[in-house]
Amino acid sequence: MFNEFTALLSKEVKLEWRNKFALGGLLLYVVSTAFVAYLSFKKIVDIPVWNALFWIIFLFGATNAVAKAFVQDSKEKQLYLYTLASPQAIILSKMVYNGLLLFVISVLTYIVFGVLVGNPVQNPTMYLTALILGSTGFSGTLSLLSAIASQTQNNVSLLSILGFPILLPLLMTLLRLSKNAADGISWTMSLNYVWILLALNAIVFALSYLLFPYLWRE
Distance between CA 132 and CA 105 in Å, rounded? Predict the structure, then answer.
């Protein structure tokens, strides 16, 4: 299965590189929303406001980036892939690729947002940890939801309806951890949020690995 996974992951990277307009659209979204925030606030000194705006921008960017994971694939293409590789390799390659893509988007958002409206984060290492865990969690959850939505006619609507309530526990924990990072609170006071995020990510990846083969049979 490892060879199937690496081949599928390589395919995802090559397709994204060929279709640069998709990545370019995400970059344009990040820069434009950060610039609108700059025009509105000039400089944000209130940490909760800065943190909330950052995650709102990232949340919508992540949804747009990962929504196409399965939704854009035709039934014929899905059938062709399923004859070449195991369903576990397919879902794992999608989640890993989307996780890497979301991490790049999150770092870019952090840099652009910090340059335009200021960067109040006092513990960048902890904030980077939140970005890694958030990218992983969003990737796993949205990839599985995209696979479910691709089986319906109104796939985009279903993904939007299911996405927010399922992502809410992850998002709330990320907000608390990233706020602690911005406030400069020590790791000992924030480790519980890290463990919660690790547990949520592990549950999402385990459920995706176990449930996707049954979804694939449909």
Answer: 11
Return the ∠ at Cα 195 (arms to 190 and 201), rounded to 5°. Answer: 130
87-117 and 2-18 are packed helices; what angle lies between their axes, rounded to 10 degrees?
40
46: left (phi over 0), alpha (psi -120 to 50) or beta: beta
Pairwise CA distance, residues 152 & 146, whole Å = 10
Residue 27 has a CB neighbour count (10 Å cut-off) of: 17
| Pairwise CA distance, residues 91 & 211, whole Å | 10
In 3-state terms, the chain is what percent helix, strand and coil (to 5)?
85, 0, 15
**pTM > 0.70: yes or no:** yes
Domain boundaries, the chain: 2-217
Collapsing DSSP to helix, strand or coil, 89 comes out as helix
**What per-residue confidence (pLDDT) applies to 72?**
66
Low-confidence stretches of the chain (pLDDT < 70) are 1, 20-22, 71-78, 153-157, 217-218
Nearest CA among 66, 69, 46, 68 for reference residue 58:
66
82 — phi, psi (to 5°)? -70, -20
Sign of CA dihedral 70, 73, 75, 76: negative
Q: Dig out the tokens for 15 from the structure.
A: 């397709």
